[in-house]
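wait is this the right file?? whatever heres the structure
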């Protein structure tokens, strides 16, 4: 309303006169009121306000109204079995009696949570970067200080607390490229093709986002191994892409067979547009290490069928079996000649979380993407810029993975001793786990050639399968839930990773200390025998 003569101020005077008249007449004054509205007064006493719960409006966000793609996402590694484990831990802390005294979380590859000690040199460099005043301390070796100074010089204001370029700190990307060249025997690597990421998962999700398009039968199909790491199925669900399963050969140590790739591809062409092929090498959850011939066959298949290759190589340091060796897809692609190397589009991923480092919490990683269309490269950088930059402490940790101490440097001897100790210990535990599982009736475990998990096949009697159905559970979920409730051991059912119809598995990490791992395996053995007797 206007503020001229007879406007708002005049209106307030009229209202005051009416109020005075009402009070004189013994009536409660009534202010102006709009139909259907209620004015809230901050002066109202809380005791005078009655909350009518029945009158509260419906929530905007419900299971029916939420994004259906998010609702479809499943991530078994932190799924129902882990939630149940958390509940049991709370009960134990309250003093509620159980047949065990602790929950052993063997569901996830979290090395430090399982007692693995950090690599000293890596932590020294990150500490120096985080608190540069320590650069004057005689307690830190010069080779660590040299790396910390170089990293800080690449940061705005010489601080780890500043944003970096979306692609990551330039000098660290240079170190990643040098590492790849050393690893692959001189195969060239361009820092401009390196993208530092928030763990490998961030890079995988970003590449999938930019790859997926179309609708109906032209919707992008993504080929993934079964069993697979649930990140892939979760990302595919979230992006509303089409999951195309190809099965690893359990009878042949989880080998990848190109004939199976071709079967899956040809069947998928009837309902989608398959254009992405995901490989996990060494395998998670299966632990197989692909030989050179297999990788050559896969690359030829991708070239022939015009598929974009994703090579998840986060376990490249975790190879244990004699006769097995890690070969990067990048190296084999280069050695197959220019027809392949100049044409096959490949994204490779690595991380600080696995290997001998086990630095999961830093969320450090990188991806190298080659043969990307120049215009798509700009689109990828744009997509990554939305999240500003990966954690800078994680970038620093990744730098130490790719730029460790070298012979002649002060920290080299201790670094190699710690690295070899971790890897030798993992190799010992891989063999121990395989051997002990294969002594249990109704359990078969393939050799753990690499990575850090066992994925044994378990026999579940028909009576137990029927009881699982009655509880509306997958049989292996029922088995794993019983294992948790009776022993405190938390493992992930194979159904969360995918498996052939009629087979049952679970994934278990081999990260616990040797003595605890032995106890864990003995408990699984005792449980399994009792389970078979109960449901025979």
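ok assuming it is, sequence goes like this
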């Amino acid at each position: 309303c206007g503020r001229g003569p007879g406007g708002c101020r005049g209106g307030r005077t009229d209202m005051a006169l009416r109020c005075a008249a009402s009070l004189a007449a013994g009536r409660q004054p009534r202010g102006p009121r709009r139909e259907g509205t209620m004015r809230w007064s901050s002066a109202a006493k809380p005791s005078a306000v009655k909350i009518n719960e029945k009158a509260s409006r419906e929530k905007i966000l419900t299971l029916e109204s939420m994004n259906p793609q998010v609702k479809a996402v499943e991530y078994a590694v932190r799924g129902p079995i882990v939630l149940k484990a958390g509940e049991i831990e709370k009960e134990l802390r309250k003093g509620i009696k159980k047949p065990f005294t602790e929950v052993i979380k063997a569901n996830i590859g979290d090395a430090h949570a399982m007692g693995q000690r950090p690599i000293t040199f890596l932590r020294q460099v990150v500490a120096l970067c985080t608190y540069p005043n320590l650069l004057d301390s005689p307690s830190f070796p010069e080779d660590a200080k040299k790396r910390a100074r170089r990293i800080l010089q690449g940061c705005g204001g010489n601080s780890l607390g500043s944003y970096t370029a979306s692609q990551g700190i330039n000098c660290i990307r240079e170190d990643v490229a040098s590492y790849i060249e050393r690893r692959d025997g001189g195969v060239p690597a361009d820092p401009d093709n390196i993208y530092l990421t928030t763990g490998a998962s961030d890079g995988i999700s970003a590449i999938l986002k930019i790859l997926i398009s179309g609708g109906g039968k032209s919707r992008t199909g993504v080929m993934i191994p079964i069993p697979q790491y649930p990140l892939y199925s979760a990302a595919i669900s979230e992006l509303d892409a089409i999951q195309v399963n190809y099965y690893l050969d359990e009878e042949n140590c989880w080998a990848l067979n190109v004939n199976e790739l071709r079967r899956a591809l040809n069947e998928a062409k009837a309902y989608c547009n398959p254009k992405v092929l995901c490989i996990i090498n060494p395998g998670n959850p299966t632990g197989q290490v692909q030989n050179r011939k297999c990788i050559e066959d896969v690359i030829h298949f991708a070239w022939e069928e015009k598929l974009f290759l994703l090579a998840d190589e986060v376990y490249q340091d975790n190879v244990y079996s004699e006769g097995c060796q890690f070969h990067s897809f990048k190296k084999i692609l280069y050695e197959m000649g220019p027809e392949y190397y100049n044409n096959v589009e490949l994204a490779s991923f690595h991380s600080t979380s696995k290997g001998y480092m086990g630095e999961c919490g830093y969320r450090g990683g990188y991806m190298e993407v080659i043969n990307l269309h120049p215009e798509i490269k700009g689109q990828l950088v744009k997509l990554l810029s939305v999240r500003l930059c990966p954690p800078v402490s994680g970038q620093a940790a990744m730098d130490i993975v790719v730029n460790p101490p070298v012979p002649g440097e002060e920290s080299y001897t201790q670094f190699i001793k710690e690295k070899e100790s971790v890897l030798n210990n993992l190799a010992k535990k891989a063999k121990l786990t395989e051997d002990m599982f294969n002594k249990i009736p109704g359990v078969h475990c393939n050799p753990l050639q690499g990575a850090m998990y066992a994925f044994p096949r378990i026999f579940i009697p028909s009576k137990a399968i029927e009881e699982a159905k009655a509880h509306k559970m997958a049989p292996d979920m029922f088995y794993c839930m019983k294992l948790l409730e009776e022993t405190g051991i938390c493992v992930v059912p194979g159904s969360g990773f995918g498996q052939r119809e009629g087979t049952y598995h679970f994934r278990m990490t081999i990260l616990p200390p040797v003595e605890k791992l032995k106890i864990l395996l003995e408990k699984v053995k005792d449980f399994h025998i009792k389970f078979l007797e109960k449901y025979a």
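Residues 52 and 370 are 61 Å apart (CA to CA). so i think its the right one actually
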